[in-house]
Each structure stands twice: as structure tokens, then as C-alpha cells.
Amino acid sequence: MAPPLIVRALRLPFLTGSIMPVAVVATWASLGRQLSWPLVLLTFLGVGFLHLGGNTINDYYDAAGSDAVNRRTTPFSGGSRVIQEGGLSRGVMLAMSLASFGLALLCGLALAWLGRPWVLAVGVAGLAGAWFYSGGPVAFMSRSLGEVVLFLVFGPILTWGAGYVFTGTWDWRPFVLGLPTGWVILAVLWINQFPDSQADRSAGKINWVVRLGTAKARWVYALLMLLPYPTLALMVHLGGFTPWLYLGWLTLPLAVRAIAICWRHHAEHAALIPGQAQTIMTHLGLALCMVAGLLVRYLTAGGA
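The structure corresponding to this sequence follows.
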């Protein structure tokens, strides 16, 4: 059964990519301190609305570019397809994006009013990254810069900003907490560009998978999928984080299976779909394991 049109247009299931890293930082920030639930709720809502605005503005711009010529779509790449299938117009998608960004701005203003004024700077940076990733005068994704922007916006910058909201200070630890899931969210983008690479090239969207070709790009994908595990080890042994973060290593088999699928089927968009799904599951599982590790540390330390 196909999901409702609004779910497809907003790409709601992909919200885990932004919400889960914030959940990791919220768990870390709650250890030994009382969190303000209005701040927590507004942060999750603001991040979610920014993500939805980015999804819909991406469809708006790509409808006149690569999505119009893409014949190798999958459930995870090629856009929502609601414009191409006649479900919604480009104008409606633009209106949905503007509404989402507006709601995110309202959340930011509320957070500033509650004593977190610097969140506006982080929010504006996130909004600019989401908008200019897809289009505008910069169009990062067409200039081989989209990968860097996505890693920062969905990785350490996101968690650093969330840490500021939750604690009121600019602590380096939330920044570092965004690295493991940041590598994998970049891997999600990376593998999703494999099926789109022919359409992207024809539309002038020169991302790194287009530059390298899928045979070479699979090496980078494999590296991105494996980087979280030594990163977790460094966090524990050099950063002073709890050894319970090693629970994140439980997702290594998922990552290895995803790499194996990508390695064999990098040029076959239909056969690549399970690898795309495994990559998303690795991101979700890694974040959940990090949350669990932080909670176990709290419980075994007697709440200290």
C-alpha cells in the first residue's frame, strides 16, 4: 500500500536522519541535569521543520533538473516523484517548503526568547544549507560541495547547536557526538547518488559520485560506512566518553552488509535498493545504540 501523498511529498520517514542525532545529544545532556522540556520540544520541532523544508525545496529545484530525466528511481533516491506523477505542482512544493522553513524560524525565535539567542545563528546556517544545497545562486549539490554541507548540517553542527540549546553552553562534546552518525548520513547521500548519477550528469549536477563514477565512488562509500567505528573508539579513549558507546559497534554487521551490496551492485539501481535500506538502518541503529550506551552509563553510575 502506497503511503499518503503528503507523507511522500515531505519524505517524512527520512526525518530520522536529523531527529536521531538530536536524540543522542538530548540523552547526553540529560545525564546529571534537568532538561527544560519546552527547549527540547522546540529543538526537535525546529530541526524537523528545517529538514522538511530541505526535502521539499530539493524536489522543487530538481523537478526542473535531474528528476525530470531520471529513469532509475528507487524508494530512497530520485526525489519524492509527486511532481512528476502529477500529485502536486512545483508551486505547491515551494509553498510547503516556505511554510516548513517559516515554522522552523518560529521555533528558533521561541528558543531565543527562552534564553538561547545564539540558536538563531545556527538555525539560519541550517536553513541556508538546506536551501542552497539544492538551488539558488550557489546550488552546492551541483558544485561538488553538497556532500560537505550535508555532513556538517546533519552531523556535528546540528548536534553542537542542539547541545547549546539543551545546556546553554558551547561544549565541544556535542560537536563530537555528531561525528559517528554524520559519517553515515553522508553515506546515505552517497549511495543514493549512485542510481541518480546518469540523470545528475545530464542535468549538470556534478556531485562527487558523478565525478568519480560509481566504481570508484564505492570505495568512498565503504570508508564512510566504516569510519563511525574507529571514531567511537577515539571518543572513548581520547575524548573521555563512556565505554558504553562501544554498543554502536553492534551495527557493524549492518554496515558490512550494505558495503557488500554496494560493491556488487553499484551500477544496478534495482539491486542497490537493499543497500540503500541497510545504510539508513545503520544510521538509525547507530544512533539508538549511542542513546542506549549513554543511558547505561547513567544507570550504572547511579545517576551521577
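The longest helix spans residues 269-300.
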